[in-house]
Amino acid sequence: MIELTGSTLTLKDMRDICFHGERIQIAPESLENVKKSRAVVEKIVADGKTVYGINTGFGKFSDVRIHEKDVNTLQLHLIRSHACGVGEPFPKLVSKAMVVLRLNALLKGVSGVRPCLVERLRDMVNMDIIPVIPSQGSLGASGDLAPLSHLALVLVGEGEVYDGDDTKSTGEVYVEKGLEPLELKAKEGLALINGTQAMTAMGVLNYLKAERLIEQCDWIASMTLEGLEGIIDAFHPAIHEARGYPEQIQVAERIRAITNGSTLITRQGEKRVQDAYSLRCIPQVHGASRQSLAYIKEKLEIEMNAATDNPLILDDGATVVSGGNFHGQPIALAMDFMKIAVAELANISERRIERLVNPQLNDLPGFLSPDPGLQSGAMILQYTAASLVSENKTLAHPASVDSIPSSANQEDHVSMGTIGARHAYQIILNAEKVLAIELICALQALEYRGINKASKAIQELYQEAREEVASIKEDRVFARDIEALTGWLERASFEWELVRNDLFPNKG
């Protein structure tokens, strides 16, 4: 059971909740803070004070005063009118993360919602009532208005939720679960949709996938290094310490550890003086991507625990002030950074694939074919990798440099962070396929060289991967191999288990 406080949620917690079904509970002190902030809203309504979003219109309509008798209706109108997302729905895991993050933000006690609302969000997570949320339509400022409105619809018994691989109407599920729809009160609709939880939820899934991917890159690159009889001298610790980046030093250390004991690895001058950059510069490139992920992790964990709606109830209710915490620029920049970092992992992987299959660049059979000429072998695998890498280059164009004014120019600068997060997700999916292709080719190259000559760690990786895809004895439909290995990479653990106890007993 993971306790949500509004300020202590971590990416590990999100992994446990979203991927492993860990249940959540609300910290009692956080619920007390929710009650206190709600009392402030109710006093504002009773006293007839004019406060944005409580008894005014929204956006350009912020100067329109709403009569006390209509403040609840205002919130329902807000949700319905803003629920205009389009396109394919977010993955269910992202929608679940969105509910968790919105709940966690409300638990900071500065949003003015009722306890029953945060308790319903908790129950949605624990009872697996996950909204179907269209993925397109957010500008990433004024919050993720359209996506979060589709989330909020479920609270009032409208919209759709996931039912296994299918969907059901929320009303039908509420009847099955014995739940009643909520009636939104003053400010609650705005508190639900003014936030960055769509882009942040997508960013969380992106990070958790990219974190796994970057571990796999080092392992697969190590197998390629052995398959091409690469030069280990380029990974000498002093080289990387001379530059000083911890992540670069770490990657070089990992490559040395994974390939330790291999008789395929060569020394400088034995077969060639220097390797191509795609081999020699693995620590520099992989290390730089690791640096970017560290930055992204920091920004995500701040945003996961941030109050991003408007207005905020501060100083124990003494101050109710409008601001701009809903602006998604910090996450927009982080997602654009992620796009570039992961695209580069795929980029250098594709260059290693080329070195594995091109007979002009190695002494292996052309395109790793079992019968060059009659059989094409891995020729078109490289084409596919090149296509994915090229697509990534287009997707990596930063979304955050664009802005289109909205709400009659009241909201005249927006982040487009949710677009960046969605594109980052697609880049990660593409990169997984490129890594799968490199692994197929590296497996075949290693087989030609002699499995028994590889390091112990690479031999174990070879055996595990061969359970997913067979050796290339004859041309076949390689799309199935790519799909099989991509699926395996999404499940497999490539962390230090195979080598750390033997070679680095004091390191994790």
UniProtKB/TrEMBL annotation:
Pfam families: Lyase_aromatic. It catalyses: L-histidine = trans-urocanate + NH4(+). This is Histidine ammonia-lyase. SUPFAM superfamilies: L-aspartase-like (SSF48557). GO terms for cellular component: cytoplasm. Pathway: Amino-acid degradation; L-histidine degradation into L-glutamate; N-formimidoyl-L-glutamate from L-histidine: step 1/3. There is a cross-link at residues 141-143 (5-imidazolinone (Ala-Gly)). Contains an active site 4-methylidene-imidazol-5-one (MIO), which is formed autocatalytically by cyclization and dehydration of residues Ala-Ser-Gly. It is an enzyme of class 4 (lyase). Signal peptide: none annotated. It comes from Pontibacillus chungwhensis BH030062. It is found in: Cytoplasm.
